[in-house]
Amino acid sequence: MGTHAAYDVIVVGSGAAGGIAAYVLTMKGLKVLCLEAGRMLDPSRDFFTHKFPYEWPYRGEGKPGQYGKLPQGMEWKIKEWTDHLYTIPAEDPYALAPGSKFTWTRLRAVGGRTNLWGRGCDRFGPLDFKPKSLQDGWGEDWPISYEDVEPYYDRVEQLIGVSGSSEEVYNTPSGKHLLPAFNPRCGEVLIRKGAVKLGIKVTPKPLAVLSRIYDNRPPCHYCGACNWGCDVGARYSSLDVLVPKLSRQKNFELRTNAPVHTILMDRSTGKARGVTYIDTRNGLEYEAYGKAVVLAASLVESIRILMNSRDREYPSGLANSSGTMGHYLMEHVAFNSIEGFFPQLAGRPTSNDDGPGESCLYIPRYNYGEKDRKYLRGWRFDFYTGCGMGPGPGARFPGFGSAYKKKIKELYPAAVQMGGYGEGLPFYWNYVEIDPGGLRDRFEIPQVRFHTTSEYDHAFAIRDEMYGQMEEILKASGAEIFPYEKESPYPLGSVTHEAGGCRMGNDSRTSVLDEWNRCHDVKNVLVVDAGCFVSHPEKQITHTIMALAYRASHHLAEEFRRGDV
Amino acid sequence: MGQRLIARRQSLKYLGMLAGSVAGREFLAAWLPKSEKAEPIRPTESSYTPLFFEPEEFSAVEALTELIIPTDQSPGAKQAQVARYIDFLVSAASEYNPALQHEWTDGLQLLDRLSREKYQRSFHEISAREKQMLLEEMSLPEQDSGRTHPGYKFYRLLKEMTVEGFYTSQVGLIQVLEYKGLSALSEFPGCTHPEHQS
């Protein structure tokens, strides 16, 4: 083990953020080592996208009780199609403070959660980066603006391939060179018609799914199984799109089964000199040396690594002189969907409504400039319609026998459900820490404890407003709505949109990262995953994760070129 | 979001829960047909050796599942071998969810007791019509939250697992619902109906 820097940059993680960071840095000629905690996936062996429920022993749901009691938001993700991909809490535990809830969905493999993501690719808007100064005076502004990020949204879209439209929507900017949008299903068209009556815009949802051949990748073949992977790489994942490009580069090295434990510091310079990691195949710890370390392990893992790297100078975690690391965790305000059916579509012949997996249309945020309300900011709505892989709305009716069976068949093509995301707010008291109870994983790495709740006033208030708005839109579309119970906002992490904990800012006393995702305290350590988020608007977050990872990596490469690292 | 339209075991918890509220009952009054007529039950298939149930229990499960999703103009639970699926699943529950096994054995015992109270014969011995009537009584709380029945809990378990087993089978999903998805298309036309567009 030498002490010289073997690599220019060590990138930790290969998912949404790590894939982009590794790609940008490698293409700029830097010598990159990417450490991935999980294994390499082979789409032909690991994805079961064309398998029907009756082709699995337990119809895809696993042995009764096999997955333990999964936290809310994880139940629908872990199936026989995917249970070999995700980490389940029973095998890879995390701790919860008394009264706290958190759903931590982990996919430890090359490509991370981009293997099974929702594929929504909306951009944050100008107001979203400046919520305090441009919206309502609450919270914090980002140290960057939309104009700073815009060129990187463009580059990401060009790299990964996004289908959608360039329709103008206030504060929801869109790329100008997207692939054609997908054709909407009957129910989606009905909702568009209903919403227009209320003056609400329904637009094509930007999706990282190819509607045409792009970059030598085949277009979507509409099997609709994207939540189980994609066997042709028609949707973006860093596994399918970036790893093949990177593996042709001599200056790129990928090491799998290598969860990072700590960051190695050089006390004489105050800079990081590498990392320690475990080889999960033999359980031994190794060191890797680099001139810069880019953390992209997903924010909780990145925070775990920084906190486990605590030393005399940084007793509460490396680069945590502000004391804010782990704090201001956020997630969308999310809750149960409203379900129902379209009488207009009842009794129609079955149609193939799988399409590109996701819905083709959605309702971007439309509430701006409201006064005297109990919530801040806004929401977006998504809706799912048509024939799915289950009995549909008719199954919810009482009774049994032929009439019941007939009802199921009649309403099968008429299904609709609508759900939404409201802006989640950052609070100091929503945080993650190294478990004071000493929880460790099977490699003896100290693990985290969450101290989080989603049940705060704003969340309930915006939820109530959203239920009402969804009812109005569905009714205007002619849908019948099943009576529903208002559920508490889902625990943080439930929709796999966790963000914050290492927020960026201009003031090193109140933030962990600077505007280039560098730690204020240790400038050659970057955190480029969603940990850097300052606010959590209603939009999907992955596109912004990728754009910011692109931007930060681009800047780091410039620093290398100037010899500043 | 992004879950497939109906995440099954998740959506099943809502099955038949509409009667639990005033809004639900009003909703049902508008949408429920006025009467139901059931088909006669066919005799038990004999070539299968159950994994979990006793032979007599298994024939009860066969009869019950066929009552929930009968064979009529289209195939029902029997053709989809839903009873075998339930037997397989309940047997497999030994490892992580033995409570499910108790729910079934207790439920079937209760069914026998209810049958003896009402007809002085075991569930196995009563006629198809009587089985149907007993199940109807057990199901009443579903339509009217003011009603209770000792067999309601078991009725719900039976219904949930039958619906799940049937509509995840090739018979239920492909033949009956005529699900066309999970196939490769070169184009996705979306909605092509002028009447929906405007």
Supply database-style keywords.
heterodimer; A: 565 residues; alpha/beta; FAD/NAD(P)-binding domain; seven-stranded mixed sheet; four-stranded antiparallel sheet; 11 helices; 14% strand; globular; B: 198 residues; mainly alpha
Ends apart, CA distance between termini of chain B: 28 Å
Mean pLDDT of chain B: 86
Largest sheet of chain B: none
Determine the CATH superfamily of the domain at 1-158 and 236-325 and 427-447 and 501-565 in chain A.
FAD/NAD(P)-binding domain
Summed up, the helix count of chain B is 9
Q: How much of the residues of chain A is beta strand, in percent?
A: 5-15%
Q: Which class do the helix and strand fractions of chain B yield?
A: mainly alpha
Total DSSP E strands of chain A: 16
Describe the main β-sheet of chain A briefly: 7 strands, mixed
Helical fraction of chain B equals 40-55%
Radius of gyration of chain A over alpha carbons?
23 Å
CATH architecture of the domain at 1-158 and 236-325 and 427-447 and 501-565 in chain A: 3-Layer(bba) Sandwich
Q: How much of the residues of chain B is beta strand, in percent?
A: under 5%
Topology, number of strands of chain B? 0
Could you characterize what this model shows?
Chain A has 11 helices and 16 strands. Chain A is of the alpha/beta class. Chain A has a domain at 1-158 and 236-325 and 427-447 and 501-565: FAD/NAD(P)-binding domain, CATH 3.50.50.60. In chain A, helix 1 packs parallel to helix 7, helix 1 (16-27) packs parallel to helix 11 (542-562) and helix 6 crosses helix 10 (457-476). The radius of gyration of chain A is 23 Å and the shape is globular. Chain A starts with 6 loop residues before the first strand and ends with a helix. With 198 residues, chain B is mainly alpha-helical. Chain B has a domain at 54-178. Chain B has helices spanning 8-12, 22-31, 55-68, 82-92, 98-119, 128-143, 152-167, 170-176, 194-197. In chain B, helix 6 packs across helix 7 (152-167). The chains are: A alpha/beta (565), B mainly alpha (198). At the A-B interface, helix 6, strand 11, helix 9 and strand 12 of A face helix 1, helix 2, helix 4, helix 6 and helix 7 of B.
